[in-house]
Specification:
Blueprint lengths: L1 H37 L8 H58 L1
């Protein structure tokens, strides 16, 4: 019987702790709600937020230009590599033809 009472007491203590945690959360929510309601009639200054937004828009546009330049540069590099590979293949074919000419002779 004493064992059962200990289990019940432990369960009640855990339940009490959970209720206390929920009460603290509820108190915090009520406090935040009151702060919000207290400030509802005050004008909100969004100028700092708007400045940050304008700067972000400008930076994004500049970044878009930089990305386009990088993409164009990569395309140029790939084109150069393609031309280089074609020239190297032609040079390899010429060299192979010369070597084969002397080997076959």
């Amino acid at each position: 019987m004493a064992e059962v009472c200990k289990d019940i007491d432990a369960g009640l203590a855990a339940l009490n702790a959970a209720i206390n945690r929920l009460n603290k959360r509820l108190d915090n929510l009520e406090r935040k709600q009151n702060e919000c309601c207290d400030n509802k009639d005050k004008p909100t200054d969004l100028s700092a937020l708007l400045k940050r937004l304008e700067k972000a828009e400008k930076d994004i546009l500049e970044l878009g230009g930089v990305v386009k330049t990088v993409i164009d540069d990569i395309k140029d590099i790939l084109d150069s590599l393609g031309e280089h590979n074609e020239n190297a293949k032609e040079s390899q074919n010429i060299f192979s033809a010369i070597v084969n000419f002397f080997i076959d002779e």
